[in-house]
Amino acid sequence: MTALPSGFRFSQAALQDYVDCPRRFHLRYVRQVAWPAVTATPAAEWERHLANGAAFHRLVQQHLLGIPAERLSHTIADDDLRRWWRNYLTGGPRGLPETRYPETVLSAPLGGYRLVAKYDLVAVAAGERAVIVDWKTARRRPRREHLARRLQTRVYPYLLVRAGAHLGGGQPFAPEQVEMVYWFADFPGQEERFAYDEERYLADEAYLADLVQEITARADDFPLTEETARCRHCPYRSLCRRGERAGPFAELAAEVEGETDFDLILDIEQIAELAF
Ligand code: SF4
After folding, report:
1. For the whole model, what pTM was predicted?
2. Does the pLDDT value for residue 220 go beyond 90?
3. Which of 10, 79, 168, 254 has the fewest CB atoms within 10 Å, counting from its CB?
4. Where do the domains of the chain lie, and which CATH numbers do they carry?
5. Measured in angstroms, how far is the CA atom of residue 36 from the centroid of ligand 1?
6. pLDDT tens digits, residue range 159-170?
7. Are the C-beta atoms of residues 4 and 113 closer than 8 Å to each other?
8. What is the Cα–Cα distance from 11 to 21, expressed in whole angstroms?
9. Does ligand 1 come within 6 angstroms of the Cβ of 37?
């Protein structure tokens, strides 16, 4: 049995790590190895992109909390960030319910641990519907099939149904009342929407429970991924003898069309850790 650190909580990022590469999960969450390697080169370009992603999430949060857009606009110095912000102001997701909960955290027990999710935004009409919005700042727009496979697309709606009753005035949301929306800062008007239902909810519950059971039943046998392309932008590549130099940032963005984990790297929880 794997001894996870005390207080360990499963997030979509941790589960995605395990699915993508069990060894990465082990290094990052069990051994908690902090490996000082850059994710992509040139490092300065990658770091600027990360900082802009974090800044964009902060801007939108402040706006949703009531700070006037004009005041926030004056704080922006970077061209990419200015473009994303303008796209948000002119082409943000439409038709959202009126009550907004930005940067909301929900959690529920799962397999002897807790499952936790941090939402960019949950927009609610109590007793009617809830829309989860996730802001994405990737330079390429991922395909729908790619997003459908992501743990985030399963964990977020599941946890909102399971643990989001207080957001709906004390009444749990039925799966059919929940929708997940990915909004892309460089592709306004091309958001991706995922409906939810009872069948999906039950399937997600069984899948997530099985995944946690599989992880916790392992001893120390967390294999390296066979998808070596994933190692190019993984900070543990030299530790795993999967290369010394980070892959190019331009290729990382291109791989969003494939199977790699730009979303994971840009997970807002990790951005927050980097930024603060
Ligand atoms: S370098 Fe490759 S094998 Fe090692 S943890 Fe990263 S993705 Fe897994």
Report:
1. 0.90
2. no
3. 79
4. 9-275 (3.90.320)
5. 14
6. 999 999 999 999
7. yes
8. 15
9. no
